[in-house]
TrEMBL record, chain B:
Response regulatory domain location: 3-119
Organism: Kaistella chaponensis
Xref: Pfam families: Response_reg
Name this polypeptide is given: Response regulator receiver domain-containing protein
SUPFAM superfamilies tied to this protein: CheY-like (SSF52172)
InterPro entries reported in the protein's UniProt record: CheY-like_superfamily, Sig_transdc_resp-reg_receiver
Amino acid sequence: MAIYVGPIIIIPSWIYLNSKIIRISRVNKISSIADFIGLRYGNSRSLSAIIALVCILAIIPYIALQIKSISETFHLITVTENSTSILFDSSTYVVIIIALFSSYYGTKYVDASEKRLGIISAVAAESFFKLIFFVILGLFVVYGVFNGFEDIYRQAEKLPDFAAKNSFNGLEGSFNWFLMLMLSMSAIFLLPRQFHTAIIENRKEKHIKTAIWLFPLYLLIFNFFVFPIAWGGKILFFGQDVNPELYSILIPQKFGNIFISTLVFFGGLSACISMIIISSISLSIMLSNNIIIPYGWLDKFKSENDTDNTKSIVNIRKVSIFLLIISGFIFYKYLLLGKSLFSIGLVSFVLIAQLGPSFFGAIFWRRGTYAGSVSGIIVGVLLCFLGLILPSFSENFVQSEFYQSEFFSFFKIPYLSPITQIFFWSMLVNSALFILISANTVSNYRERNYAELYVDIDDYIQNHENAYIWKGTANVSDIQKILVRFLGQKKTEQALKIFNLKYNITDESDTADSRFIKFSENLLSGRIGTASAKILIEGVTKEDKISLPEVLQILEESKENISINKQLSEQSSQLLKLSGDLQVANINLIEKDQQKDEFLDSVAHELRTPLTAIRATSEILLDDEDMPAELKKDFLKNIISESDRLNEIINDILYLDKLETGTISLHISENNIIETFKKSLKPLLHLFDQRHLHHSEVHLLENEIYRFDEQRMIQVFQNILGNALKFTNEQGMIQTKFQEKDDQLKISIFNTGKTIPEEDLEFIFDKFYQSKNQNLRKPIGSGLGLAICKKIMIAQNGNIEVKNKEIGVSFEIYLPKENESVPNADDQNM
Amino acid sequence: MKKIVIADDEHKIIMTLEYAFKKAGYEVFIARDGSEVLELLKTEIPDMILLDIMMPNIDGYTTLAEIKKDKNLDKTKVIFLSAKTGEADVKKGLELGADDYITKPYSIKKLTERVEELLK
């Protein structure tokens, strides 16, 4: 029970812990827990090898367990006997097939820190099916064999050991229970298989958040049926010698339900296979990267050809996986037969837990040292060996004087089970050694460097290469040669390009700095492990020793640099934005400037035209004394009218400018729109008569009161009516229609006559537009009238548009029904 | 009698030019835009055309280009009269083949002298 509760309790701390571990691993291209711990304590080859050994020692029995359950259930389901000879045991071949498959499938990528999405998807699918099958089995046992949960517990109560199994057994039991909880909690972080799936295969940090609710839910559903099945089995097989681990297959088989027992077999089989595969992959990475390659095999990668080297790495891993599984099988065959699944599993957990102090110390404690870590782990493992492994395999040892001695029994805590007892003592001694020795040894600069990098990973995550301290002499070309040997020419060049881009490096100098060294080590780490990467790089560089205070100083500087960098990049992005804004403003100004130029050109042109007439006329009048009186009068009249025109243009320009700058204030008040229109029309009526034009009005309004500036509206009406007067054909007509449409007052002033060319429609309200477009008949006005009308209407929250109709042109003036908001100066400045 | 065409869309400007050139002894033809000029040229071969640039329907530039295509009008002189006074405008007018480019407002006296000079 505690085995399942532990993970559920520890899961919430995942968010914090795992995101930290994931970041550290990603930044350093870490591919196993041995890399993780070894790198922290000075990228130590020996420490990571020790850790790899501990893992292998702990996990091979675990693999053996899986093989055991595969082979036992296999025999159970096929109803065959377990053969004593390996060669004639059918399960041997099943295991060999699994081993071959794993070694092929697990080594598709050379870079061990690479993500294998396929495997993870397979595991996910396997877990899902296992759950479904288990739920089916649970339902079968509870409702098919028994009559629901109550029935099982009623019958179970009669069993002799029911009470004992369902309580904590007082304080002593609770202490036992608590230690088991601790054990499973540390296992979920430290098991190579867990580390691999949770850290190395993690693609996005936010996936942790999903895992936090999904994983406990998964375990809870599982636990929901574990007890009924276990008790059901006890009831059914009471008094018989039956392994309780096989209840799940035996119960359906007893009732002849082959379907369900097969289902459960496959669920269990796939689960075991996936555990074997993942475990062996993670172990093989450690075996190859932390033991085989750094100890001896490195010299074998002499080939200049990266494919050869890659092939040897892959082969090492393939053979490792195969050997690991096979040794698991041998372990099972010769050492494990007949032992309980549960206790062997727990021994594995206790062994793995020995990595705990160094592991958690790596993340939280800067003072932890190599010496502390190594001594803690070695002594812890030794204790496990003495207390758990030896006694269970060697009867002689149990009988020996040493084991029976006073010394040994001194440490025996009577109420603890042997496993929790050893867990307790080994962890106590391990942690104590780790802390005491660490506190009394001085870490070397490399350890201190990584200590900072691990504990404060969030400070360095961006440009972590900056935080790596290295002094000495190194050449880019030498390092590059090594990279090519493992990555190939193309990938190396690509990687260097990325590096140069990241740090803005443009100079061609051959001197490698600390960033480049760390970068190169990372590139190699994924393939051959951090320790071997360091050894390879060390081979072509000459490193100077740095004192500890120097390390701390450099780190402090780099932290400052990073924060300064952050500030700088913030400032530069602000500047960039500012310069963007300025550019836009500049473009706007240039555009405005151009508009102003065009406007001035137009103004000059408009002013010169009447001026030309005035000048020429005056010149003629001056020179020509014998001009007929009648003609003389006409010419003088022209001078007057052209002078008036000049003045009108000047007035309009000034007026438009005031409208644009908003210096004219609107006097918006409630007015009767019909009355206002009549006021506008009155002074023009005689012109209508002169030209024999007919004017009519159509009123469709319920309400005639609107809010607007009356003087401005009169100006707009007169302008549009004046325009209509100019362009209406002889005997034509002008019609003004008042109506309400879409909550707006709409006034259409329509005149018969020539329509406006389509291409001119959208420009007609532009300043001087008429004079610029040669296709448009020139009006007598300033060329600013319509532009002024548009400005006035928009300032009153209204609008004015023009539309061609079948036999003429219609100007449509809009005013909002509710014109409450008096527009401010900005709104008028359009 | 030399024939002169006055092309402008401003009535009051036409009045002055018409008076001045009639008095100077020319036969004067009036056109209010480019299309009227081209219409006129179908029947008349004038000695001089005074051409405004900014006219409705067909502008002065297009009118001149049409004139240049007509071989019958090889000897006809063209002067642009325009309120467009920018250097670029003047250059463009002369490049199109106008004999002169006179900016508005002009002196009637100088204009008539220039016309006479070109027609010598």
